[in-house]
Amino acid sequence: MTHSTWLKPLAASALAAVFAAAMTAPAAAETNTVRIAEQFGLLYVPLNIVVDKKLIEKHVKKAGLPEPKVELYKISGGANMNKALLANTLDFGAAGVGPALKLWGKSEGRFKAAFNMTDMPLKLVTNDPAVTKFEDYLTIKNHKIAVPAAKVSIQAVVIQMAAKSLWNDAEKIDSLVVSMTHPTALAAVLSGGQSVKSHFATLPFSYQELKSGKAHEVSNSYKMLGGAHTVLVMIAGKEFKEANPKTYQAVADAFLESYDWIAKNPAEAAEVFIRFTQSKLNPEEVKAMLSDREEVHFSGEPKKTMEFAKFLHSIGDIPEAKSWKDYYWENNHKMSGS
């Protein structure tokens, strides 16, 4: 046997061994921890379900990766959520369309909506009998409007949109708008005797305020924008998405599964929400809210987000977006959004 005759079988054997090893090797390493933050209210029920049912772990394992640790945080206000995302202390952050667009613009596209979450009419509620319509805020005295984050939150942006429409001045009543968590604003409206007499609220806070008989609805964002619109999205950064593509997609898939689960199991979803938030609400009341698509709807399809994008561009807050796909990552682009 010559030297060349035994070299060929050896090389073929080695090549086969390398190929077999490649076929059986574990998937490329991705993060072993997923850090997600929510805020306050019924908008975040999908996140409660995703954590309670371990849906992220389910979809990550389905993608061939080890089960990750899921860390859940609570942050108040879109401004603070954006700061946490920019500081890389979060991988995913839930925030209103307004804060998401502002972060997209500020980061020059490094942060975008990873997936859509919630449609809900934001309700402008007050305990002040002198305020019966939005125009009354122009002349009212000793009156503040609570939103999660002044200038940044989706509530603050809707107020500016209404002011621009009525008075051609987006900042006309910005002096009335103050930052306050939803639970604190709820307490202020119900207690009375404080300068915070209005609250641009999400569920269940608007429900509690109206049910009390101490407050009434001035208007809501569906009326202001001419129909149902997306309120909440989950934001993720390019760096995390590109370094962890399977984990990123698994998180998106987990949330999309949660929307269907909630629609089919509103009673159990209500119980999970109450347990996660330690709410004293009646489970039947929460179930009723979750079952009413006019009050809250969890959907992957963006709705009327370009209304916010066009407005924020018109006042110089963000660059021009030619399509909603500019500020949503490409996993959403197959949807017929707006």
Brief digest:
The protein is of the alpha/beta class and 338 residues long. 44% of the residues lie in helices and 17% in strands.
Write down the overall geometry: globular
CATH topology of the largest domain: D-Maltodextrin-Binding Protein, domain 2
| SSE succession | HEHHEHEHEEEHEHEHEHEHHHHEH
Name the CATH architecture of the largest domain. 3-Layer(aba) Sandwich
What is the distance, rounded to the nearest whole angstrom, between the alpha carbons of the first and last residues?
73 Å
Please tally the β strands and state the result.
Answer: 11
Rg over CA atoms, rounded to whole Å, is: 24 Å
Biggest sheet architecture: 6 strands, mixed
Helicity range = 40-55%
- Would you identify the CATH H-level superfamily of the largest domain? Periplasmic binding protein-like II
- Major beta sheet, strand line-up: 2-1-3-10-4-11
Helix run count: 14
CATH class (first level) name of the largest domain: Alpha Beta
Low-confidence stretches: 1-27
Mean pLDDT: 91
Based on secondary structure, the structural category is alpha/beta
Strand content: 15-25%
Question: Total domains, how many?
Answer: 2
Question: What brief labels describe this structure?
Answer:
single chain; 338 residues; alpha/beta; D-Maltodextrin-Binding Protein, domain 2; five-stranded mixed sheet; 14 helices; globular
General description of the model:
With 338 residues, this protein is of the alpha/beta class. It has helices at residues 3-24, 45-52, 55-62, 78-86, 97-106, 154-167, 182-191, 205-211, 221-225, 238-243, 245-264, 266-277, 283-291, 305-314; strands at residues 33-38, 69-74, 92-96, 111-119, 123-126, 144-147, 177-179, 196-201, 216-220, 230-237, 297-298. The longest helix has 22 residues, at 3-24. The N and C termini lie far apart (73 Å). It is globular. Helix 2 crosses helix 11 (245-264) and helix 12 (266-277) packs across helix 13. The chain folds into 2 domains: 33-120 and 229-332, Periplasmic binding protein-like II (D-Maltodextrin-Binding Protein, domain 2, 3-Layer(aba) Sandwich); 123-225, 3-Layer(aba) Sandwich (D-Maltodextrin-Binding Protein, domain 2), CATH 3.40.190. Helices cover 44% and strands 17% of the residues.
